[in-house]
Design a protein that fits this description.
By secondary structure, the protein is mainly beta. It has one helix and ten strands. It has one helix at about 60-65, and strands at about 10-15, 20, 25-30, 40-45, 70-75, 80-85, 90-95, 100-115, 120-125, 130-135. Strands 5-8-9-10 form a four-stranded antiparallel β-sheet, with no helix packed on it. Strands 1-2 form a two-stranded antiparallel sheet. It has a two-stranded antiparallel ribbon with strand order 3-4. The chain is elongated. The two termini are about 25 Å apart.
Length: about 150
């Protein structure tokens, strides 16, 4: 099946190292296999011997995937307000000085801000969960999505 986000495709990670679905099934190593490349199957819980093994860090890799590398943004001349939401009425968390850097996680559409005879609605979500308007950065694409930064 393709991923669809339903309960049938959600899994939990037990303290015993088992991986369980919310529907009461477990991941099971076929034929009690323990070597690299052993097929994994979905089987009824509890009790099959292959279900009670540690999954070699698989659970922590799935539950806590490595974050995408951040893009380093450079604050433009005049500085930029770092806000708690992608709009100019959101609270200012801090003011970033011109030439300082911020770690950008992704870009998204937010409030359109007038600039140079047009409006510009691209904002950057920083890795700390705050936001900076893209017009406040010196090294991102102007008035368009920056291909080096993922969309949120």
């Amino acid at each position: 099946w393709q991923c669809n986000g339903t309960d049938a495709q959600k899994w939990t990670f037990g303290k015993d190292g088992g991986v369980r679905s919310t529907r009461g099934f477990c991941l099971d190593a076929k034929d009690r296999g323990r070597s690299s490349g052993t097929p994994i199957q979905i089987w009824q819980c509890p009790g099959a011997p292959g279900q009670n093994q540690q999954w070699g860090g698989l659970a922590s890799q799935i539950a806590n995937p490595a974050p995408a590398p951040a893009f380093t943004g450079v604050i433009a001349k005049g500085g930029a307000n770092v806000r708690n939401a992608p709009n100019t009425s959101a609270g200012i968390v801090r003011v970033a000085a011109a030439g300082s850097t911020v770690s950008i996680a992704c870009q998204l559409l937010g409030q359109a801000v007038p600039t140079a005879g047009t409006t510009y609605a691209i904002w950057n979500r920083l890795t700390d969960g705050t936001f900076v308007w893209d017009g406040g950065l010196a090294n991102t694409a102007i008035l368009t999505w920056d291909s080096r930064i993922p969309r949120c």
